[in-house]
Amino acid sequence: MPNTILLPLLLLLLLPAGAHAQVYKCKGKSGETMYSEHPCDARAEPMKLREDRVASTAAGTGTEPPGQPPTEAAPAAMADAGTSGDGEANRAAERACIATATASIYGSSNDRVGTLQQQMAMLNDQLAAATTAERSQALRGRMATFRQAITREHANAQSQLNSARRACAEQHRPAAVPAR
Description:
mainly alpha, 3-stranded antiparallel sheet, elongated
């Protein structure tokens, strides 16, 4: 009798815990907010993230408009996954997959955005010292180009993350059994 209780407990200990990425919120030189998986400076503090955010985002494809329920296939797959002992392991593996993809995508994206923001800060310093209207106008034009590049970088990172979420869901969720 004790062996029947001990074995499942030991198996539960072998299940991997979900990957946990640390996120830091930082202020750039121009006052803009940046997020990074690495501390930006000595004042950077780790953010407290809600665990259910990853699970609820992973439930759908990540492309539903705010306030819309997940797609039809997602609840069926979640219901099937929840009926077996493998369901929790699949969800944990999916969360770990999404966390890894998030760290990978946003890590490099934040590095590129940080570089653009540093260049904008230098342009801003030059703008403050500009003596002619032509020079000021040229610097403002370059700064607008950098702002557009940052916006594109954020949109690209979000698109990549949505694709990664879908790939993680396909990889770690069991196929839905068709109704008979």
